[in-house]
Design a protein that fits this description.
Distance between the termini: 46 Å
Radius of gyration: 21 Å
Largest sheet: 2 strands, antiparallel
Strand content: 5-15%
CATH topology of one domain: Jann2411-like fold
Helix content: 40-55%
Length: 222
């Protein structure tokens, strides 16, 4: 989110929502829990409660499963979950950066993904919502090794079935958010028009106006 210039700010709408979901893909949205706010690198996952809340908002955990994590897990276990999540987010960011730069995904990233999916206990359920069927994996909340696996499988889905040319970084150099471009002409450049897009256009218009004003100034004679 950008103000005129290089400063970044969080608007009222984002403050209410806590997290941004502009990536069109859960693993990209997870990367976007780290962002630039007023020019500073900021982690929106300030603690394990924030991470669990994000998992619920991303529809990876149900409220019942989140409650089980809060009540049945020890503080140490919840902190370990956050540490593992932050570490995997770093892996996902490296993957996204390599995709955008058209570089191969590292073997260590592939290994990290496979290690997480190998520990995923649970079952698949079919649901029907908003006029379409959905397949959703339900992890057992009591099984502490499986909560990050949905994010790993989201990465697998992106790498195997997604069009990697549509994975993009926001066109604002001061923004570090990523998204999957699902627009009709694949011409999306910004994390959001309401955030970076509009403000960058205003900044560009201002620079153009200033340039024209300078061009109209009378030249000094030698």
């Amino acid at each position: 989110m950008v103000m005129t210039g290089e400063a970044i700010t969080v608007g009222r709408e984002q403050s209410k929502q806590r997290f941004l979901f502009v990536g069109n893909h859960s693993c990209l949205d997870f990367i976007n829990t780290q962002m630039i706010v007023r020019g500073n690198l900021t982690d929106l996952l300030g603690g394990h409660a924030d991470f669990v809340d994000w998992l619920v908002r991303a529809k990876i955990l149900s409220q019942a499963q989140a409650s089980a994590v809060s009540t049945e897990w020890s503080r140490k276990e919840r902190e370990q979950l956050l540490e593992q999540g932050i570490l995997f987010r770093k892996t996902l960011r490296d993957i996204a950066e390599r995709i955008v730069a058209r570089r191969p995904i590292s073997a260590s990233s592939i290994k990290s993904i496979n290690q997480l999916t190998a520990r995923r206990p649970g079952y698949t359920q079919l649901s029907y919502a908003e006029g379409r069927f959905e397949r959703r994996f339900q992890p057992y909340a009591a099984q502490k090794d499986g909560l990050l696996a949905p994010l790993a499988e989201a990465a697998i889905d992106l790498l195997c079935t997604g069009d990697l040319s549509l994975v993009k970084k926001c066109g604002n150099t001061a923004c570090i958010l990523y998204f999957y471009d699902t627009t009709k002409n694949h011409a999306r450049n910004w994390c959001s028009m309401r955030l970076c897009g509009n403000r960058m256009k205003v900044a560009a218009h201002y620079r153009k106006k200033q340039r024209k004003a300078k061009e109209k100034l009378p030249r000094r004679r030698n």
